[in-house]
Amino acid sequence: MSELSGTIERARELWRLHEAPELLQVVNVWDAASAKAIGSLPETRALATASHSIAASHGFEDGEHIPLDLMLTAIGYIVDAVDQPVSADLEAGYGDAGETIRRAIGIGVVGANLEDAMRPFEEAVAAVRATIAAAEAEGVPFALNARTDVFVRAKDLAPAERIAEAVRRGRAFLDEGAACVFVPGPLDESAVEQLVAGLGERKLSVIGAPGSVAPARLQELGVARVSYGPWTQRVALTALQDTAVELYAGGSIPAGTRMLN
């Protein structure tokens, strides 16, 4: 199988997973070691990178402060470490969404998050359009998880207005060819229900955080996908720091620690 045909096959599988009746859970990873640990699980159907976590692991703040070349290199190691499809968090597209997606496809990425950062509506839609056009030019059915930041940036809006704006932007992204619409933020069941009603069944993607709606309930509500952003790295770092505290206090490495690297 050629490299391109393998990419196309994984892209088709990622699209299928977004359209399937089962909720797609993607556990976010940040390097080859974390990717292998998650990719080795039989339940893992696809993986997603976390831009925040990759940036942090290289000493950068989130928000496109890490150079694009370094971000893509890190993502490439993740793609090469696993057999499953990989969706990459490419932030807001690093100034040229189409070109960034083209380069990501070149290293085997078959889906991506692209955030609107609450840019003007037409500008946000144009970025999605450029992304889909770039993927089509490469011949890859790219599964774009088009992100709108209404719930994390437009906090001055009333709850109903946030829902309406997220749906307005999300519908436009879907019309351009996005696989689903990512609405990160603190969403309760009512907000999830309203977003699904506005965007359609299996078209909403959300983030899981402490206190979020449970995955089983998300599936019942018609959500397509849940990912965990930087929280998975925070779980790992919490365990690392807690272990260090135990060691400094005279303890030892926890029993049951697995050799996952």
User: Which CATH class?
Assistant: Alpha Beta
Main sheet summary:
9 strands, parallel
Order of helices and strands: HEEHEHHEHEHEHHEHEHEH
Strand content: 5-15%
Identify low-pLDDT runs. Answer: none
What would you give as the CATH superfamily? Phosphoenolpyruvate-binding domains
Radius of gyration using CA atoms only: 18 Å
Task: Name the structural class.
Answer: alpha/beta
CATH architecture: Alpha-Beta Barrel
Global outline: globular
Instruction: Provide a count of the helices.
Output: 11
User: In CATH terms, what is the fold-level topology?
Assistant: TIM Barrel
Q: How would you describe the overall organization of this protein?
A:
The protein has 261 residues and is an alpha/beta fold. It has one domain (3-236): TIM Barrel (Alpha-Beta Barrel), CATH 3.20.20. Helix content is 51%, strand content 12%. It is built from eleven helices and nine strands. It has helices at 3-19, 32-39, 51-57, 68-81, 97-106, 121-138, 150-153, 159-176, 189-199, 215-221, 231-248; strands at 24-26, 28-29, 47-49, 86-89, 111-115, 143-147, 180-182, 204-207, 225-227. Strands 1-9-8-7-6-5-4-3-2 form a nine-stranded parallel β-sheet. α5 runs parallel beside α6 (121-138), α6 (121-138) runs parallel beside α8 (159-176) and α8 (159-176) runs parallel beside α9 (189-199).
